[in-house]
Amino acid sequence: MLPNIKIFQIYFKPELIVHCDKHFIPLDNTSNPHPNLREWYIWDREYESLMASDLEYWGFVSWKFKEKTNLIGKQAIDFILSSPGHDVYLFNPCIVNEAAFANSWEQGDIHHPNISEIGNSFLNKLGYQDVDVRSIMLDRNKTVFANYVVGNRKFWTKFMEFSRKLFTEADRDPVFKE
């Protein structure tokens, strides 16, 4: 039996809808009241209704999916169907970063000095004292540098619980607030 899958393709300007793949569902993010949160706002907004649906897997990709991954929607769906049993499927267009960096924090420090120090400090505030983001080894099976994620309920439940905790604390913290 084939899993019930929906992949939403997010666009943030009306003229970008033409880039949406026919195998994905266009998702309008043009009136996002929190553009600084990028796609996370949509993930959070849609989470409860998707959890209440009969979907087994759902995910989100950007309007640049084909441009960045060189894949079309059918290929993404076929990949998921041909590799059953995973909680999450990542479509990583930036695997070159993994050849040069141990993790996204190391790469981030080059473009955003001290981002890993900020990450460690913030995670420490959330109760993750034993984590040093600079020492985590991440490969293409454990990280993605874009919002190309399709997961099941187990994945989305854990992801949203963790990310909501992060965003709630960031909103309370004057250092991280807008």
3D structure, described in words:
With 178 residues, the protein is of the alpha/beta class. The protein is built from seven helices and five strands. The chain has helices at residues 40-52, 65-69, 73-82, 96-100, 104-111, 115-125, 153-172, and strands at residues 5-11, 25-28, 57-62, 88-90, 149-152. Strands 2-1-3-5-4 form a five-stranded mixed beta sheet, sandwiched between helices. The chain starts with a strand and ends in a 6-residue tail after the last helix. The model has no long low-confidence stretch (mean pLDDT 86).
Number of strands: 5
Distance between the termini: 46 Å
Low-confidence runs? none
Largest sheet: 5 strands, mixed
* SS strand fraction: 5-15%
Mean pLDDT score, rounded?
A: 86
What integer value in Å does the Rg equal?
17 Å
Number of helices: 7
User: Strands of the largest sheet, in order across it?
Assistant: 2-1-3-5-4
Keywords:
single chain, 178 residues, alpha/beta, five-stranded mixed β-sheet, 7 helices, 5 strands, globular
